[in-house]
Amino acid sequence: MDNETMKAVVRFRDERNWRQFHNPKDLAISISIEAAELLEVFQWSGQDTDAADKLDKIKEELADVMIYSMLMSDRLGLDVDEIVMDKLRKNSEKYEVEKAYGNSKKYTELR
């Protein structure tokens, strides 16, 4: 994650004295709400699974999810790059290329 982006998010929060409201529970709720708003963009889209004509709204909602996620990682003292890389390592063990390539099954179903 771009360190400048994280600094900008934290600066925005701190300039408004909002850290006091950003406990892990409320941040998790906010992430879920914003993710639901992102999902809402695709509601009733039928065959238009890309929703290309709604790209501006998708970008807005995706940014909200990412901002709240960054705020949660900051609040918990977690390094975004570190936790993402750790998860990728774990996923690479679960989803070996040879078994998962071109396959959408969950790792427990891969043979």
UniProtKB/TrEMBL annotation:
Cited InterPro entries: dCTP_Pyrophosphatase, DCTPP
Entry keyword set: Hydrolase
GO BP, sorted A to Z: nucleoside triphosphate catabolic process
One MF term in the entry's GO annotations: nucleoside triphosphate diphosphatase activity
Membrane-traversing stretches: none
PANTHER family recorded: DCTP PYROPHOSPHATASE 1 (PTHR46523:SF1)
Name by which UniProt lists this protein: Nucleotide pyrophosphohydrolase
Organism in which the protein naturally occurs: Youngiibacter fragilis 232.1
